[in-house]
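Retro notes (design track)

What went well: tokenization of the new backbones is finally stable.
What didn't: we kept losing track of which sequence belonged to which structure.
Fix going forward: every design gets posted as structure first, then sequence, in one message. First example under the new rule, 81 residues:
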């Protein structure tokens, strides 16, 4: 049986998760004129991002496949709560 983390990350229903670099994060905030406080949250201990070494203040880019749009991108800020 595979390890639980590997299973979660490779499951067909779990979308791709990436941690943005500081430069990408600043570009995102500037493009949409927002701050990290205005982003929806994702828990630091979420199993889907455990391999990304998440820290408070990081931004996670989630790319989901969509039947109508082809690909949909969402952003989440790391939170403890």
């Amino acid at each position: 049986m595979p390890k639980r983390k590997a299973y979660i990350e490779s499951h067909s229903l779990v979308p791709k998760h990436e941690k943005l670099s500081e430069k990408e994060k600043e570009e995102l905030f500037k493009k949409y004129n927002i701050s990290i406080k205005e982003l929806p949250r994702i828990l630091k201990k979420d199993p889907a991002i455990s391999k990304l070494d998440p820290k408070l203040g990081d931004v996670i880019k989630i790319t989901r496949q969509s039947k109508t749009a082809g690909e949909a991108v969402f952003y989440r800020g790391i939170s403890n709560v």
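Added context from the reviewer: The CA atoms of residues 43 and 79 lie 5 Å apart.
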